[in-house]
Amino acid sequence: MNKNKVASVIVLYNPNWELLTKVINAASSQTSTVFVVDNSETDNKSEIEKRFSYFDNLVYKSLRKNVGIAKAQNIGVELVKGGGSEYIIFFDQDSIPVDGLVEALLLDFIHLRKNNVAVATIGPMPLNSQTNEFYKPRLRKNKKIIIENLDFYTTKQIISSGGLMCVEDFEVIGNFEEGLFIDGVDHEWCWRAIRYNYFVFLSPRATLVHSLGDGDKKILGIKIATTSSFRLYYQYRNYVILSFRSYVPTYWKLNNLIKYLIKAIYYPVVRKDLKLFTRIFTGIKDGFDIVLNKTNAK
After folding, report:
1. Contacts (Cβ under 8 Å, ≥6 apart) of 149
2. Is the pLDDT of residue 282 over 90?
3. How high is the pLDDT of residue 261?
4. What is the domain extent for residue 35?
5. 166/236 Cα distance (integer angstroms)
6. Contact residues for 254 (Cβ-Cβ < 8 A; gap 6+)
7. Would you say 43 and 60 are in contact if contact means Cβ atoms under 8 Å apart?
8. Contact status, residue 82 vs residue 127, Cβ threshold 8 Å
9. Domain C-terminal end among 141, 176, 210
10. For residue 136, is pLDDT > 90?
């Protein structure tokens, strides 16, 4: 594989440096350039230089504030465009790409395009770091298909970490929606791509160990990824925003309606923190305000 074809983007926010070192080591060995876009309030340039001075393919950009995952990723896209790479792959600061991951995804992407399949993005099979089991959709199952002797799974959305895309397709599909800030950003981009007649795939030849939120808990018998109070606001706000869009899958709207109703009980009652209920209520209110054009998403 010519790794010069692919550049990687890692968005930081107050990272665990030991874990990040493993991520950057792996990304650096598999891609031409590692663009690190830092959402932390602190400029970590000195820490980056101290830890990664031996890398000649790492570019660090500090934003000195949290501008959201979407805007940081868009900045990464522009950096990749400027660097001349044909493909881009995103990694979370705590998701370590295994050896051969990028090559497997790139070969699959090229295979699909050679067979006239308009693939927007292809990602690895996400493996739950806590349970060592693959994440599986609750309602809409991924469909296995075979294209010229290679099997793939078609899906409606993938997480951004490990997702490989062709840079030029951003001209058609558009950038990540910055108004969403954090939750639903990766899924919305996939749904938008499908609206433009692209397809989204998972590759059984690639695996990425990943953890959603703050870990999984069983609530009323349903396994749900719990999250911080900060993200809780955006989950409810963005659910309201996305629920009013026709290209967002109905199964996602229904699944998350049930999940967020359960969370609305779990967080303030089980955790006995009414401030969390205030976060939820504010998120819902702001979501409707945005939908009704009373304010802009930010």
Report:
1. none
2. yes
3. 92
4. 3-210
5. 31
6. 139
7. no
8. no
9. 210
10. no
Look at the chain and report how many structural domains it folds into: 2
In this structure, how many other beta carbons lie within 10 angstroms of the beta carbon of residue 274?
11
Q: Which two tokens stand for residue 285?
A: 């209110």
Tell me the two tokens of residue 13: 């926010």
Contact 69, 51 (CB under 8 A): no
Task: Please tell me what DSSP assigns to residue 141.
Answer: P
Whether residue 114 lies inside any domain: the answer is yes
Looking at 40-100, list the stretches that DSSP marks H as alpha helix, in order from N- to C-terminal side.
Answer: 45-52, 69-83
Q: How many CB atoms lie within 10 A of CB 244?
A: 13
Residue 60's pLDDT is 98
CA separation for the pair 241, 243 (Å, rounded): 6
- Residue type (1 letter), 130: Q
Asked if 93 contacts 73 with a C-beta cutoff of 8 angstroms, the reply is no
With beta carbons less than 8 A apart as the criterion, state whether 223 and 263 touch: no
Q: How confident is the model at residue 221 (pLDDT cuts 50, 70, 90)?
A: low
Give residue-wise pLDDT tens across range 84-135. Answer: 999 999 999 989 899 999 999 999 999 999 999 999 999 999 877 666 676 6
